[in-house]
Design a protein that fits this description.
The structure is a single chain. The chain is α+β, with helices and mostly antiparallel strands. The chain folds into two domains: 2-63 and 97-134, 2-Layer Sandwich (Phosphorylase Kinase, domain 1); 139-241, Transferase(Phosphotransferase), domain 1. The protein has helices spanning 2-6, 12-16, 66-69, 77-85, 88-111, 152-168, 205-222, 229-241; strands spanning 20-29, 33-40, 48-54, 119-122, 126-130, 133-134, 137-138, 181-184, 187-190. It has a five-stranded antiparallel β-sheet with strand order 1-2-3-5-4. It has a two-stranded antiparallel ribbon with strand order 6-7. The protein is globular and about 45 Å long. The structure holds adenosine-5'-triphosphate (ATP) and magnesium ion. The site of magnesium ion has 4 residues, from loops.
Length: 245
Amino acid sequence: MVESLAEIPAIEPFLEQGYVAEVINPLKSGKEASAYLCRAGRRLGRALVVAKVYHDRERRNFANAAQYTEGRVILNGQARRAVAKKTEMGRTIETAFWVDHEFEVLSNLHYTGCDVPEVFVCTEQAILMEYIGGEEGPAPQLQHAPIAPDEVPVLRDRLLGDIEQYLANDVVHGDLSAFNVLYRPGRLTVIDFPQAVDPRFNAHARRLLTRDLSNLAKYFARHGHGFDAEEHAAGLWERWRHGSV
Ligand SMILES: Nc1ncnc2c1ncn2[C@@H]1O[C@H](COP(=O)(O)OP(=O)(O)OP(=O)(O)O)[C@@H](O)[C@H]1O
Ligand SMILES: [Mg+2]
């Protein structure tokens, strides 16, 4: 809790600029970031928003980060050298890079109609986004959600459709599992995109797509509706290569 509160300065720019009126409470702390429920400022025209605040680099843990960053370049030489040397400035730039990437991916996917949180504004360390939940509390992760048996195949097909829609937009999530899907009755929202890769430029994309599908296949198999992740990935990949996703 104290650790979480220490990160709240990252929300200050949102308060100062009128995007956030008040921080209500921490929602959840993950490996890379903490989410805070906030009362929205008047300029957003909604009641609640979530600030996702990235941890400082020492506390973050993007395992094998290089596989996600392949195909991305830092054009500014000074910034590139700072990141390579891991100076303090380099660490700030690196965090900003993940934050900015997640903001861009969410923004594009939301624009094309995917069920991902709408994003409003970001700083070098935090993203302000749509709150996924209700008055009673935030939507649970699919992993922990109470699912009725007859819903399971519908949710599975829905997520497989989402993955195909991401691919149609040249996005592979890269860390998809039932933990990064939020459940509301009749609705799923996929979150947590900082590590998303572009299959046109990233040679790991095909493997990450298969891994995303395997994670979901395991969850759905436990609920009696598994599928063959390898086969599904192969089919999707072929369709993407031929421009028909
Ligand atoms: N927009 C949102 N609305 C409601 N809850 C959210 C929202 N964004 C994140 N959360 C909650 O915060 C948790 C952490 O968010 P997220 O997965 O984006 O960060 P993370 O640090 O990468 O997490 P992890 O490493 O555990 O996957 C989510 O699992 C979810 O419970
Ligand atoms: Mg997550």
